[in-house]
Amino acid sequence: MSLPAPPHKRVTAADGPTVTEPALVRWLLIAIALTFLILFLALPLVAVFSQAFEKGMAVYVAALTEADTLSSIKLTLLTAAVAVPLNLFFGVSAAWAIAKFSFPGKNLLTTLIDLPFSVSPVISGLIYVLVFGLQGWLGPWLQEHDIKIVFAVPGIILATIFVTFPFIARELIPLMEAQGRDEEEAAMVLGATGLQTFFRVTLPNIKWGIMYGVILCNARAMGEFGAVSVISGHIRGMTNTVPLHVEILYNEYNFTAAFAVASLLAFLALITLVIKTIAEWKVRATLS
User: Fold this and answer.
1) What percent of the chain has pLDDT over 70?
2) 221, pLDDT greater than 90
3) Consecutive H or E run containing 100
4) Mean pLDDT, the chain, integer
5) Which of these ranges, 19-23, 42-46, 199-203, 266-270, has the smallest mean pLDDT?
C-alpha cells in the first residue's frame, strides 16, 4: 500500500526565494557594478583632487582666492540661497495640495512639475532669453525701465529656479501620498486649524523628505551649467558661476586652477551623498 502524497505547500514571500542565481553570476554582477563605480565615480574624483593639489597647497589656495573665483563662488551661493528656499516653499505647497486634496487640474499640475525633467537645460535658458532678451517679448519694456534680466544675476536665478523646482516636490509627493490623510483628518476633527495641522502633524512626518529634496535641489542649483551658460553671457567676474568659471579656466589651459575650483563641486557632491544617504534611510524608516 503506497503512502498518500504529501499536501502541496503553497510558497509565499515569507518562505524566502525558491531559486537563487549561481555564485558565479552573483560575483560577476557585483564585479560589473564595482567596475562601473570605479571607472565613472572613484577615478574621476581621484583625478580632480590629484590635479587640484598637483602644484601644492599654496597654488591651490591661490586659485581659490583669486578675485574671479571668489566672485563666481559668491554668485553661486547667492543663486542657491534664493532658488532653494523658493523651491522649498513651492515644493511643499504643491506636494501638500496634490497628496492631501482633490481639485480640478490636479493631473495637469503634476505633469507641469515634471516639465524641467523633459526639457533640456539649454532650451530652458534659451526660453528666458527669448522672453526677457532685447528682441524678446518683454525685452523692450525691460530696457525702457532699465531692468536687466538676461546676462545678469536675475536671469541666472530664474533659470536655476526653473531647472531645480521639481526636486523637492517630486520627493515629497510620493512620501505624503504613502502616509495618507488619516492623521491630518484626526487633527481637524479634534479642532486643529489648517496651519496647526500642517506644523504639528504633516511637517514632522515629512521633515526627512524635505531634507532629502533640499540637498538634491541645492546640489543641482550650485552645479547647474546648461541653462545658466545660455543666460549668463559669461561675463567674467560678474555673471560666471562656479561651473562656468571652471570651463573658462580650462579653456585658458589653466588646468591647476580649473581643477582646484572643480574640487569645490566635488566636495559638494561628496557631502551631498553623505547627507542624502542619511536622509534616505530616515525616509524609509518613516514609511516602515
Assistant:
1) 92
2) yes
3) helix 67-100
4) 86
5) 19-23
| Residue 65 DSSP symbol | S
* Angle, vertex CA 167, rays to CA 99 and CA 220, nearest 5: 170
Instruction: Specify whether the CB–CB gap between 209 and 235 falls below 8 A.
Output: no
* CA-CA-CA-CA torsion sign (208, 209, 210, 213): positive
Read off the C-alpha cell for 256.
591647476
Per-residue pLDDT reduced to its tens digit, 8-42:
444 454 455 555 778 888 899 999 999 998 888 88
Cell digits for 71? 566672485
**What's the average model confidence in pLDDT over 126-146?**
89
Q: How many residues does the chain have?
A: 288
DSSP letter assigned to residue 134: T
Instruction: Calculate the alpha carbon distances from 245 to 61, 119, 164, 264, 265 in Å.
Output: 16, 24, 20, 12, 12
- Report in angstroms the alpha-carbon separations of 153 from 79, 143, 196: 8, 16, 37
Task: State how far the Cα of 257 lies from the Cα of 51, in Å rounded to an integer.
Answer: 9
129 — alpha (psi -120 to 50), left (phi > 0) or beta?
alpha
What gap in Å lies between CA 50 and CA 208, rounded to an integer? 35
CB 283 within 8 A of CB 175: yes
Is residue 70 a contact partner of residue 204, using CB atoms and an 8 Å limit? no
Give the C-alpha separation, 275 to 288, whole Å. Answer: 20
